[in-house]
Write the structure tokens for this entry.
Amino acid sequence: MPKIHLGPDLIAQELAALAKASARNLQILRQLENVQLGVTPREVILSFEGVTLYRYKAHRTKTKTSPILLVYALVNRPEMTDLQHGRSLIAALLDKGFDVYLIDWGYPGFTHRLVGLSDYICRYLDKCVDHVRERLNRERITLLGICQGGTFSVCYAALNPGKVERLVTTVTPIDFHTQDDMLSHLIRHVDIDALVDAHGNISGDLLNGLFLLLKPYRLLQQKYVRFFEQAGDIEAAALFMRMEKWIFDSPMLTAQVCREFGCWFYQENRLMRGELRLNDEKVDPVKLTMPILNVYASNDHLVPPASSRGLAKLVSSSRYNEEEVAGGHIGVYIGSRASNSLPVLIDEWVRAN
Amino acid sequence: MPDDWAAVWRQWTQFFEASPLSGGRVEGWSPMDPLTGYREFLESLQKLAAPASSLDAVDRINEFVRSLKGAAASDWSNEIVSVWSSNTAKSASQARGKINDSAAKLESVFGTWSSELTNLPAIGPLREWQQASQNLHHALLNERQAHLRLTDHVEQSLSLAQERFGAYLRDDRGPPITSIRILYDDWIDIAEDSYQKIVMSETFSKDFGAFINANTRTRLALKAIQQRGAENTGLPSARDFELLLNQLNDLTREVADLRKDSSVSAMDVVSGPPVTRTTGPATAKQSLAKMAARQRKPRKVAVAERRKNGKKSVSDHEFTIDKILPPDQA
């Protein structure tokens, strides 16, 4: 029995339907060129050196006792956490009664070339944490790290255990030398020092190119075919457009961060080997004694689950929990079922810890 | 598979290529284009069916497809695989062609002068220029070689994908393929998987690194020439900007330290000596004050150490700093 059951008439019908749907979806996209990202009202409570600290306005009058500070990655923008109604991690956390803060690292420019990991983690993040602590007159707060922001949060918590009440890491790379880490595999033989000397800051376009190389067929072809074949749904088109805007609005990485994160983490795996030093101080994972929730995505092609799960080998906290969430690297936050998984998980864990 | 049927199939793959679905040309593409393509497709079918005047076009095609399925299913699958992947294979060979073209152009631009310049030792008043140009020339040639090696990997992954897709189509097991959309998704799965297999090899990792490093050396060689040009024309060079940035960075950090010190000192005055907590958690201010008391060195000692290390005192910069940096940059 042949596998292909296709006749020219069926092919013609299918292609005609696709052509019609494509035309319709193109028309819809033209109406959505100015679609906005970010839906939850917020206020700036601190701004310095291009970094902005936001507080999101609570839906309820009464919030939980512990504030939660979101630490986003340097690649891409934090708007992904508040993409649109119904797909907003921030709105879902507010609904659960959290007092939510977020650090926006901004868009580094030419003058930020020498700003490195010590600046981001020991100065900027520390300043934001202190600001929230002082504002609320609290000794410790909860950190929620996202992707690379999770790695930063782990380092920060190890350096400042007295300021971190709980640590939540989501899709966070910890062990950069796992077998299935394609990104790490790709840059293993790159001379990062020379690259940074030649380029200076690394542009968002270059970074995006590297990420697209991980799954070129799906990310450059299939994604668009899937969008164009759908039945002209304006809501789906708006989500697609927001995602396109978000994913290609990539700030550059400062030269120093690229050098340090690329060499120390991706090539030398210093955090995992207990050899990382920031600001002349050892990042000692033994000091991670606070309750920790480590969430990873089952189909993450950027940060494989094994990389995130490396955290279990580092920490000494007896209150360490790991949770797998179905989905990919981004789907964990904005997938159709995301609002019923990650925020619920965090809320239940915080209640128990 | 007869040529005319293959032509119809190719026409449609070309139609795909010309549509925004392929991620290609978008500007100027209008909803009429697919309709035009569809009409042309139907006309092709009519043309194909013309010799059998007693049957209508669709019957003729169906009969043809049935005979293909029955008599030579493997050929049919192979042809689909071949046509399906021809566009991607074509892209790879086009990329290779472009690299070779650009290399040929490069050779024609530099011409004889280039090869002589490369082979001659760099001496004389223009030695530095000659050396820099030689470096750039070598870097470009190396980059081309590295790019070709990478292109080989891409072609290898496409060949593997075609081979696996063909085998998959010839395999009777599994659900039948009843739409072109399913066929496309199956192709993507297999192509992506084949790509991953090649990319995750140690050879690819080394060749990818070699290509990026070769490209980096080209940029560095270009920068060296730009540097020399800037120096000769009195323009600020990249190196000058680096120096300025270094100074600005040092100043920013020193101002940040000073401001932190002074704010903690102010807290000390307000809150007095560290408080021993009896009930409730320590406040952030108390923690900061304790930390500062532990870490802060006496001012005079810090300045003396700085001078001993040959560094300028912070106070030497203070007037300038206040002029340069807004208060929120500390």
